[in-house]
Design a protein that fits this description.
mainly beta; Immunoglobulin-like; 2 domains; 7-stranded mixed beta barrel; 28 strands; elongated; disordered N terminus; cell membrane
Length: 423
């Protein structure tokens, strides 16, 4: 496909944004404390150096603790100053070509800017309260080593995503690039249990999908106009659980965001026997089946609220079966509670209480115990007596017919039959 498609046109019709970036090269904000993390020595060890990022050209220079590096950062993306980040980490970044089909078009001219030979940094900042995470590439903004500017930013509004089983899901990922030429590529990867695979790879410069697995898609119009590189999962399955990597490439630079996906399935709960009837002295086994839930971590308790008591109490001695696997990847278990029925337990309410990540509130099922013979015949007792009487009536009627068949006398002929015989 020719590069100058509708999407390319969308990327060029934002002159206002470019003007604003030029007029307001940086958004003023409080300095951000970070750590520069390096591997040094043999054997390799981790060296951490304190860093202070200043988002305004302060005069005189900002004073910092001895041993702290100070960088003056221009952030036209606005991503590093849009939140109160709780953690910040810097590492050295090496600009280079990437030998992937969906990235080769970004550097096909084989001409790089001289600034790529200077020091570049990757930064990752996290806002735990808002669950915002930003990965950015900082490059030189002038002749001074302490002057940096954001060249590429990749951000996500979620670090952990809980996905309902069987539903459509969008994994959020946004991008901002200092170059408005439309030269970028997007790659989505999935990593689980040590295995990794490419789900979707898109060359934004050529406007061409290079890799695409069934069940995954992207909104390319929103990608080119708004920088929305989100991945759409058409139907969430348990196999989708794992780590998703949103990787953005621009010429010689790359940044990525990692998102953890956990598949959630709400359990189906049933409490047996239903209805709950017992005779005095009979051992009753309550069975609570919790079916089709995910993930596996779950807690099951039995409670009883005796007649006249204001609140239930926790029962001990609960046993639990091993979990079973269902075809859709969910789990099923059963929990058991035994007790001896007595007249004092008539009207007691037994509850199976389940706590699972799929629900913010505990889920439950309740049965009321009816003990036979307590407080006179109940409606249920009357129903049983009626059924027994109906059975006895049918049985006695059957015996009566058989008795007449074997021991009854032949019927006398009618008068008409007798008269015909005489004639």
């Amino acid at each position: 496909m020719i590069p100058f498609t509708l999407y390319k046109i969308l990327s060029f019709i934002s002159p206002l944004a470019a003007i604003l970036v030029g007029v307001f090269p940086s958004i003023s904000a409080d300095p951000l404390s970070c750590w520069l993390v390096e591997e040094k020595g043999s054997p390799k060890s981790i060296l951490q150096t304190p860093v202070l990022l200043v988002f305004s050209k302060s005069e005189p220079p900002v004073s910092a603790e001895p041993g702290t590096l100070v960088f003056y950062v221009s952030d036209p993306s606005g991503q590093l100053v849009s939140s109160e980040f709780s953690s910040c980490e810097l590492t050295y970044h090496l600009p280079q070509e990437v030998p992937l089909n969906w990235v080769r078009s970004l550097t096909e001219e084989q001409v790089s800017h001289p600034s790529l030979g200077q020091e570049w940094y990757s930064i990752v900042v996290v806002d735990d309260k808002k669950e915002i995470t930003v990965s950015a590439v900082l490059g030189p903004a002038g002749d001074k080593k302490d002057q940096l500017a954001v060249s590429l930013a990749v951000y996500s509004t979620s670090v952990m995503v809980n996905a309902p089983l069987g539903k459509t899901l969008t994994l959020p990922c946004g991008l901002w690039s200092a170059k408005q030429s439309g030269r970028f590529s997007v790659e989505w990867r999935h990593r689980a249990l040590g295995d990794g695979k490419v789900l979707h790879a898109y060359d934004g410069w050529r406007d061409r999908v290079e890799e695409e697995l069934s069940g995954y898609s992207m909104n390319f119009s929103s990608l080119h106009s708004k920088g929305d590189a989100s991945l759409i999962l058409e139907k969430v399955e348990v196999s989708h659980e794992g780590t998703y990597l949103c990787i953005i490439y621009v010429p010689y630079l790359r940044a990525q965001r990692d998102i953890q996906l956990q598949v959630i399935a709400k359990p189906q709960i049933s409490l047996m026997p239903s209805p709950l009837f017992a005779r005095p002295g009979e051992e009753v086994t309550l069975s609570c089946e919790i079916a089709h839930f995910h993930p596996l971590d779950i807690s099951v308790d039995f409670l009883v609220q005796l007649p006249g008591e204001p609140s239930p109490t926790l029962l001990s001695g609960t046993s639990q079966s091993a979990h079973g696997h269902n075809q859709d990847g969910t789990y099923t278990i059963s929990a058991f509670q035994r007790f001896i029925a007595s007249p004092e337990l008539h009207g007691a309410r037994y509850t199976c209480l389940v706590n699972h990540v799929s629900s913010t509130k505990a889920m439950s099922r309740t049965q009321t115990l009816q003990v036979a013979g307590v407080l006179g015949p109940s409606i249920e007792d009357g129903m049983y007596l009626f059924l027994v009487a109906l059975f006895l009536y049918g049985f006695l009627s059957f015996l009566h017919r058989k008795f007449k068949l074997f021991f009854g006398t032949p019927e006398e002929p009618s008068d008409k039959q007798t008269k015909n015989k005489k004639e």
